[in-house]
Amino acid sequence: AVVSTQSTGFGITPVSKEQVANSPATLACVVSGLTERLSEVQWRHSDDSPIDDSDPSSPYTIDDGSSGFADGTQTTTLTIVGAQNTEDTPYFCVVTSNEYGGTPEKRAVALNVYTVSSTPKSI
To answer: What's the pTM?
Structure first.
């Protein structure tokens, strides 16, 4: 399938996240300019393989955002369990709108992971 990275009538705003290592994170793509819900939503790993959250043991949860569709906007989210968040990782949201020709649109969404350490203070 052809996947475009150039918008064809609707806007996609990736919402990247900075997150403490080993804590849950939620990434999002806000899709605007719609008059109907997206026809398909996918999230993909950095190697472009699809993320499947259908297995209850999956470390990922995808919300396509269709239940929150309002005012021409649909927000899809990818929630990642803390154990998966150990290093900076790009993910991709891929959305398809039949309203705008049915060509999938892909955007990179970054998960930037950092650690917090304490330094003893001498008095």
So the answer is: 0.85
Q: What is the DSSP letter of 102?
A: T
Both tokens of 104, joined, read 């999938």
- 39-93 residue pLDDT tens: 999 999 999 999 999 998 999 999 999 999 999 999 999 999 999 889 999 999 9
Task: Note whether 90 and 48 are within 8 A (CB).
Answer: no
- At 2, phi and psi to the nearest 5? -80, 130
Residues 62, 52: contact at Cβ < 8 Å?
no
The CB-side HSE value for 70 (13 A sphere, CA atoms) comes to 2
pLDDT exceeds 70 at position 22: yes
Cα separation, 17 vs 114, in Å, equals 11
Q: Which residue has the tokens 């064809």?
A: 8
